[in-house]
Amino acid sequence: LFVLGKTYEDLVASFTDNRELRKILYAMNGGLPPSQVSALIPALMFRHYLDGAWYPRGGSGALRDALVQRIEENGGELLNHVRVGH
Questions:
Q1: Bridge partner residues of 38 (DSSP)
Q2: Is the pLDDT of residue 70 over 70?
Q3: Are 42 and 11 in contact (CB under 8 A)?
Q4: CA dihedral angle for residue 11, residue 36, residue 6, residue 18, rounded to 10 degrees
Q5: Could you tell me if residue 34 is inside a domain?
Q6: 3 state DSSP class of 9
Q7: Is 72 part of a structural domain of the chain?
Q8: Inside any domain, residue 36
């Protein structure tokens, strides 16, 4: 991997000299100075964005519904707004 051993500052500098663009790209570094961030993590995040976002078919509600269905199929019960004692 070409990013190993590089800082995020080094990585961004290898792509552009534009200071404004660098500031935008540095926004992904978790609040640390780009000179203190490994280039690996932001590079992996960019790769993830390029591959596209993933989400459950039918949205997050479909995931919830599938979990509730499985719980109920196995004899469980989902209770909302119920105080649980110890």
A1: 7
A2: yes
A3: yes
A4: 20
A5: yes
A6: helix
A7: no
A8: yes
